[in-house]
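Q: My collaborator sent me two sequences in one message, no labels, and asked for predicted structures for both. Can we handle them in order? The first one she listed is below.
A: Yes, handling them in the order given. First sequence, followed by its structure tokens:
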Amino acid sequence: MRFVACFNKLFLTLPVALLFFVITVSFCFAQNASPGNNPANTTSVGNNEIKNEVKNAGEKTELMNTFKEAVAEKKDAWSQKRVEIRSQVMTRVRANVGVVGKRYLAAIARYENMVARIEARIQIEKAKGADTSSIEVSLLDVKNRLSAVKSVLETTIPAMEPIDETSSGEDITGVIKEVRDALKEQKTVLKTIHEDLKKIVLDLRSLVLNPANGTEQ
């Protein structure tokens, strides 16, 4: 009876043990067959990571190239804008210098005409025996200064011609300052000449109205 009972227990437990064994073996096979434990799958994952890194590196390079191109385009645009601004500035400066130069040359022409009329009157008064020596000295000084101003203007105004929008900022600034200083100086000289001519005219008029005061002894 005891043998029969033991046999019955063994008979009952054997299927359970067999089932547990089957489950265990299946689990082990499942682990071995998983993607993480499959060498082929591991290699595939590694290759994908490399491809992703290469792709990201390519995208970064493309982004940097795009950024560099944008910066280069910005620089070109600014350079072009700077050239346009310089061109506009030089156009205005040349126009202003031309206007001022013409005005000064016109003033010189008027003063030279005055000198010619004064010289003609001096000859008339000299023929009458008047002493015009002091007036002639003053007039000669005016004529020399007029010639000097004209010479400076004829040199200064063309000095603007070689300068254009492609010239350096230093060259442009230097020439503009040189021309401006020269014109300012000649303006002062012309004002002085104008005052001296008025004095010469008054002296000559006094000589004409009072011939006895200017008669040669």
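Q: And the one she listed second?
A: Here it is, processed independently of the first:
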Amino acid sequence: MSELWPYALVALSMITGLFLFRSELLFLVKHEKTEGIIVNWLKAKQKGREYFYPLITFKDKSGTEIQFRAEERCEGSPMFPPGTVVTIKYLEGKQDIRKVKYPGA
């Protein structure tokens, strides 16, 4: 019986990992891909530094227009002008899970 403990621990670790990263794994398999546009930049100040976050709009598979602030930011000034086309990968129905590919990346 004691010989099974290592296998049980490995199985438990794998199940825990799959549970914790299920959204990311689902994203890899079932994401949608479309083009979006940087429509503006949002400025934020933190500890005296200016950061800029792109405000991006895109249409999902059903044609609904979605606008969101990307998590990526740049310091000092925006990297791309408004109107720049980007590639969006997203999960249908889970709009909080998105990845943005910028020009030249």
